Amino acid sequence: MKKVLILIIVVFSASFYFSNIHLSFNETPLQEVLQKLEEASGSIILTKTNTLGKITKEINTLDLESALDIILYSTDYEYKKIGHNLYLVGDFDLIIQGSVQNATEINFESLEVTKISNILMLLNQRVRRVPNSNSIILFGKDGLSFEILNLFNFLEDNAGENKVITYSSSHKISKNVYDYLIFLETSYKSSPLENQDAIGFLESNFSLLTDLEKVEFYESFDVNESDLNLKENINNYYLVEKDGEYSVLVTSRFNLENLINDEKTKNVSHIKTSFGVSYQFYSNEIMSNISLQFNKSYFDISFDFNNNSKFAYATELKDKVRIGAILKNEEDQINISFLLDDYEDFNNFGLYGILQINSQIENLRSILVDINELSYDLVATKTYTFGDKQTIELSLYPGIGLSISKKDQATIYFNFGAQYSFPFQKSAALFSYLYHQSLHTISLSIEF
């Protein structure tokens, strides 16, 4: 009996002696216990928010994971290894587990879910995408779930519209997660996180590290210089500390025109129609016109009360390059023009290049051979927006052109155009002025 007792004492003493971690706790706060384990193991232990409790345990183990098993036994918490010598302690998937009975499936027709994957990642605690479908499941029936539902309803109703949306959400984090992100960022001030290690760590473990608090969105009417540097569908992360509480604020900006379901785009035609009237000062000519934009094609018919008419057609040849023709009937003469234009978008303005070849029709041969004039216009475009609820637009079009005619020498000329757009609920009123090759023209039109 003595030998057995001695053997037990020796084994117990040996296990204690060779243990890497031997700690004793008596009604010790859990956060303090985890800090002691960090110091003893040389690892980093992060926690979710509100990881509370008191521990009374004796720890004698060879490794940290065994110690965590002992510490967290009979608590509501568990641990996950999220990196090399990096652990996270908390109650995972708590919200979804408590909301399964209040789950709602949402099916989208216009919105393409895969195009907002960066937003779904942020809402992972409340939203799950249904595999192999264009649907999601929303968990919960509380105020936060209502905010998320409003977001998805708005996206579904407006997908395909040319509207810029700014999304923001607030996510609660613990102090040690906040401190660890600051450590990874090294030189954090108040701008979004820039260090790729910090961003990668946060995005890889976002639903584990954070607790969703609030979801907001609003339509961006006035885009300032700082907004121009924000790429669409890219999340920007800000660390926030206020009154001893810590959170991550996430913002993202995207154009709803790019979120439409590709299958719906194939089956739905986008049509714009306008009716207008124009006046040319030099000739005292008043013209009425009807134009139709059908997907990537454009038609325009203009006429006056003296049997003069014009028909224009243009279509997109490839991305940002169009080809077209203009047929004019003036004083019993028929003129035809061929157009080729391209567009480049820069940070603060756009630039059009327009090549036009003019010919007068007498017979089929003259169209191909007898070219009367060739011109090339280079036009810059800049649009300014005003207003909050209704976006009023003022667009300016300064430019320069070169004309080469069979009768005259080559001439260089300056152009200028301006357009004022005032929106209504489903239409817009457009007032335009154009100065082109010494001719002044004003026009008024309604676009649907």
Automatic annotation (TrEMBL):
Name of the protein this chain belongs to: Secretin/TonB short N-terminal domain-containing protein
Give the organism the record lists.
Answer: Petrotoga olearia
